[in-house]
């Protein structure tokens, strides 16, 4: 797919963002230190409306439609799909209603405006997890309708419908200490003090990779072939970031709290839906079979893979800044690899 020119109406990389107004009860530091995201300058797949994903998909298990007990599906009742199938809803996929290779426009999401807001699209969910004694983790979950996986050895691999990425900031008595950047199957953690900030000197800058939306602390080339290493030269698996248009996720977000003991979500605003956060299925198509004419493979890897799970599956009650995934948790004190 051809690249597009940068939208001249989007926020300048040096602009000062308009402060968000959050519902009552949201700690002010959640906004004061919220990440600002630099989208790639030629990004095709921008932040998308979370609810719109339900309008353009239908639930399936093994490519067969699931009967919805209480249609239509909305963010207020999506968790009813957890009763489908034999795996507690984990085998449910929100499958596109049309062939995605026809490039339906909804996959492209919404370009942020001059203030960094995705107008008409709620593209972020901010989840506050209070562990007590002044220790609070705040998750900033970003949603995109499509993930472009990139080109590896001349083959395009790793595309999928739906894409959830996130930053997590660990606070101590309202002071930010560490920030997690999700990247593919892993990510990186940094001490807050070493990160690049906006003009206020408070909000960390995040650089979103072209197509894959992996989050990085610096612009440039990022090779993520080796876990826990972010090489600044191309080797095999490469992401590209730059100081493209700024997106302020706080301006169009759902704000909720999460109780780890009860495993429950509570909205700060009574109008905010939370049932969708309990949905345990996937936010895109199931991986297409090898016999599907759209599918390609290289050394066991596929062009189209299955859609992702949602925020509830991102270890909201994590002990360390990094999720427990078998990788060493490095709390980086510089911006190097």
Low-confidence stretches: 1-9
Give the overall form: globular
Specify the helix fraction band: under 10%
Q: What summary fits the major beta sheet? A: 8 strands, mixed
Indicate the proportion of strand residues.
25-35%
Count the beta strands.
Answer: 21
Radius of gyration: 19 Å
Alpha-carbon distance between the two ends:
30 Å
Total number of helices: 2
- Strand line-up across the major sheet: 18-17-5-6-9-10-11-21
- Pattern of helices and strands: HEHEEEEEEEEEEEEEEEEEEEE
Mean model confidence by pLDDT:
93
Please write out the topology.
Layout: H1 28-32, E1 36-38, H2 52-55, E2 57-61, E3 64-65, E4 93-96, E5 124-132, E6 135-147, E7 151-152, E8 155-156, E9 160-172, E10 175-183, E11 186-191, E12 205-208, E13 215-216, E14 220-223, E15 238-241, E16 246-247, E17 253-259, E18 264-267, E19 297-298, E20 301-302, E21 331-332
Parallel strand pairs: 1-12, 5-17, 11-21
Antiparallel strand pairs: 1-16, 2-3, 2-4, 5-6, 6-9, 7-8, 9-10, 10-11, 12-13, 14-15, 17-18, 19-20
């Amino acid at each position: 797919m051809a690249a597009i020119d940068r939208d001249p109406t989007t926020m300048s990389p040096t602009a000062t963002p308009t402060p968000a107004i959050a519902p009552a009860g949201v700690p002010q530091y959640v906004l004061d230190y919220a990440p600002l995201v630099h989208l790639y300058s030629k990004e095709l797949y921008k932040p998308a409306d979370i609810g719109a994903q339900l309008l353009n998909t239908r639930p399936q298990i093994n490519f067969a439609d699931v009967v919805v007990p209480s249609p239509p599906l909305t963010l207020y009742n999506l968790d009813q799909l957890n009763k489908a199938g034999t795996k507690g809803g984990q085998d449910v996929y929100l499958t596109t209603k049309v062939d995605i290779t026809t490039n339906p426009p909804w996959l492209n999401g919404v370009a942020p405006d001059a203030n960094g807001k995705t107008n008409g699209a709620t593209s972020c969910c901010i989840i506050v997890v209070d562990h007590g004694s002044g220790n609070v983790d705040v998750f900033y979950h970003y949603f995109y309708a499509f993930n472009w996986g990139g080109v590896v050895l001349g083959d395009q691999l790793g595309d999928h419908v739906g894409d959830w990425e996130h930053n997590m900031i660990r606070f101590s008595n309202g002071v930010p200490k560490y920030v997690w950047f999700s990247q593919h199957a892993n990510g990186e953690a940094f001490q807050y003090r070493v990160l690049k900030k906006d003009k206020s000197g408070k909000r960390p800058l995040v650089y979103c990779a072209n197509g894959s939306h992996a989050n990085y602390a610096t612009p440039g080339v990022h090779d993520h072939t080796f876990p826990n290493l972010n090489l600044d030269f191309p080797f095999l698996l490469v992401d590209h970031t730059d100081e493209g248009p700024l997106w302020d996720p706080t301006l169009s977000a759902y704000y909720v709290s999460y109780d780890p003991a009860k495993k429950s979500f509570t909205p700060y605003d009574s109008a905010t839906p939370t049932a969708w956060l309990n949905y345990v299925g996937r936010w895109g198509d199931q991986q297409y079979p090898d016999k599907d004419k759209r599918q390609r493979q290289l050394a066991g890897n596929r062009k189209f893979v299955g859609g992702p799970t949602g925020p509830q599956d991102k270890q909201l009650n994590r002990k360390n800044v990094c999720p427990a995934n078998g990788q060493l948790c490095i709390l980086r004190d510089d911006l190097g690899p």
